[in-house]
Amino acid sequence: MTPNPFLGVFLHSIGGLAAASFYVPFKRVKGWAWETFWLAGGFFSWIVAPWVVALATAPDVVGILRAAPSSAVFWAWFFGVLWGIGGLTFGLSMRYLGISLGYAVALGFCAAFGTLIPAIPSGDLLRMFGTVGGRIVLLGVLVCLSGIAISGAAGRRKEREIPSDESTPELNVGKGLAVATFAGIMSACMAFAIKAAKPIADLAVERGTPNLWQNTPAFIVILFGGFVTNFVWCVWLSRKNGTAGDYVDAARPLLSNYLLCMVGGTTWYLQFMFYGMGTTQMGRFDFVSWSLHMSAIIVFSTLWGLALREWKGASAGTRRLMGLGLAVLIASMLIVGHGTNLGAQ
């Protein structure tokens, strides 16, 4: 299949929109503790949606997973477990920092680690310096990291200027920055998991799965690892906080809460469905998909922050800085797309 990097950028943008949007339904859940709605939504994210999409796009999913190399299955699952640690703390970063700043800080570290580290052992990073397209892609990654830094600075200024009761009721910048930093580093394990699961994707293609959907069986393994981590943590919190009864308490709006968790959880999974599709279009520089994904998430999460009035009361200078960060991130996506296109040619 001939790569189409600009189609890949478009698909990564859709994935970024899904990733930036998934938490919005959770904000409307009423009467449930964080651990309750996080696990309820996660069941759809990590178990239901991966199986439904894989069964719809790949023939004989169970046969593919049984025939896959055991080492690939294990390492994909293991990195999924580590990614799950980042995923659950990522939810806490939204809680303490709000959407704008939480995404910017966590994804800044996630983009740096998830993009560059997997490319070092394979030699892809060094080879990129030897081609024009590769150097342009690396420039795009640097521009991406610069845009993330600018967005983070804008979010930090915004939180200083807006009282916590107008931005997020549980604002705690110190705790939130620590959690978001840790979340970003651990969330980068998703990039490692996808790389480890490459034999599963290759086997899926061999057995008739369209190239665009080759990663859907792999996500079953990876996201099950994330489910294990989050399940253990949320059950422990439920017992500690006495919130296990939330799931069946008739005094809560159970139907609407479960529907909101289903929408939020399914939307969350869509980010990786489109991410997996986008990587198939990026050609020899497919590892830069991670930075594209992070850029798109920050762009759309900032727009959601505006829509949810998280930036109400911020100064004109802070808003201009936010706009500059968005412009730099969008430019980085175009630069990476152009460099990858040159590499594919």
Walk me through what this model shows:
It is a single chain. The protein is mostly helical. It has one domain. 78% of the residues lie in helices and 0% in strands. It is built from 15 helices and no strands. The chain has helices at residues 5-21, 23-26, 34-57, 61-67, 70-116, 124-128, 132-161, 164-167, 173-187, 189-196, 198-206, 216-241, 254-279, 289-307, 316-344. Helix 1 (5-21) crosses helix 14. The longest helix is centred in the first third of the chain and has 47 residues, at 70-116. It starts with a helix and ends with a helix. The mean pLDDT is 81.
The gist of it:
This protein is mainly α and 345 residues long.
Keywords for this structure?
345 residues, mainly alpha, globular
Topology:
Layout: H1 5-21, H2 23-26, H3 34-57, H4 61-67, H5 70-116, H6 124-128, H7 132-161, H8 164-167, H9 173-187, H10 189-196, H11 198-206, H12 216-241, H13 254-279, H14 289-307, H15 316-344
What share of the residues does DSSP label as strand, in percent?
under 5%
Helical segment count: 15
Classify the secondary structure makeup into a structural class.
mainly alpha
Kindly report the average pLDDT value. 81
Radius of gyration, taken over Cα atoms and rounded to an integer in Å: 20 Å
Low-confidence residue ranges? none
